[in-house]
Amino acid sequence: MDARSYLFVPGDRPERFKKALDSGADAVVIDLEDAVAPAAKQAAREGLQRWLSTADPARLMVRVNAVGTLWHVDDVDMVRASGVSAMMLPKSDSAQQLADVAARLPSRIRIVALIETVAGVVAMREIAGAPSVMRLAFGTVDFCGDAGIEGLGVELDYVRSQMVIESRYAGLPAPIDGVTLELDDLARLTGHVATARRFGFGGKLCIHPRQVEPVNRGFAPSEDDRSWAARVLAASREHPEGAFAVDGKLVDRPVIERAKRIAEFDARIR
């Protein structure tokens, strides 16, 4: 649930599955939706079902086709019979939609709700509170198309803030930011990660293995973060009651909790 990088791999390209798993991505999303042409969807599903019967499902999830499409029901049935413990639902538009899908899945399978429509944004509080939802993700490109918004930067600041707030309110992990389309522009990717992290996001969708390492690095504590957290926690042990100062700045309970989160996250990824 604390995954930083979610790497998409086309569901009809099984020769790429191992490469995706070897990329260092925290989670690999085998995509039966946008990455697969309509004529290839049935064959992709059947091939994925065979592959999953022999695969380690630990870091895998499947993005099924959206509710109401010709392929959705069969996709969900395949996921239900597989060993995966997570599924990504595109165009998550309502809590009722999530409940209907979850009712067809065993309780061990949790759902990443991909918010990529205006309806999904309007219903985000109810979606985040749905019992089956493990995390929210932002489908920025599709959302802009639905909303008529041009641009993936400051034009989406309001929605990003709302997604972080609703995730926190529902007790979910920090949400997952959308893709960076430029595959060879490391500076742009790094900038997108930094912006998402400042807004309170905890991960990012990736569309190529080369994006994984910068994303993982960008959402991990920096050396300065680690050093600061260690100093704060050491000082808090010396001052178990009341506020104190570290590096000339006031430290109180919320600051100590942030330092603890950095130390705990750092321990998990090392």
Write the layout of secondary structure elements.
Blueprint: E1 5-10, H1 17-21, E2 27-31, H2 41-52, E3 60-63, H3 72-81, E4 86-89, H4 95-102, E5 110-115, H5 118-122, H6 124-128, E6 133-138, H7 140-147, H8 157-170, E7 176-177, H9 186-199, E8 203-206, H10 212-218, H11 223-238, E9 244-246, E10 249-251, H12 253-269
Parallel strand pairs: 1-2, 1-8, 2-3, 3-4, 4-5, 5-6, 7-8
Antiparallel strand pairs: 9-10
Look at the structure and give the CATH class of the largest domain.
Answer: Alpha Beta
If you average the pLDDT, what whole number results?
94
SSE sequence, one letter per element: EHEHEHEHEHHEHHEHEHHEEH
If helices are DSSP runs of H or I spanning 4 or more residues, what is the number of helices?
Answer: 12
N→C terminal distance: 16 Å
- Report the portion of residues in β strands: 15-25%
CATH architecture of the largest domain: Alpha-Beta Barrel
Whole-number total of structural domains: 2
The strand count comes to 10
- Runs with pLDDT <50, length 5+? none
Describe the biggest sheet?
Answer: 8 strands, parallel
Rounded to an integer in angstroms, the radius of gyration calculated over CA atoms is: 20 Å
Shape: globular
CATH H level, superfamily name of the largest domain: Phosphoenolpyruvate-binding domains
Structural class: alpha/beta
Query: Could you name the CATH topology of the largest domain?
Result: TIM Barrel
Spatial strand arrangement across the major sheet: 6-5-4-3-2-1-8-7
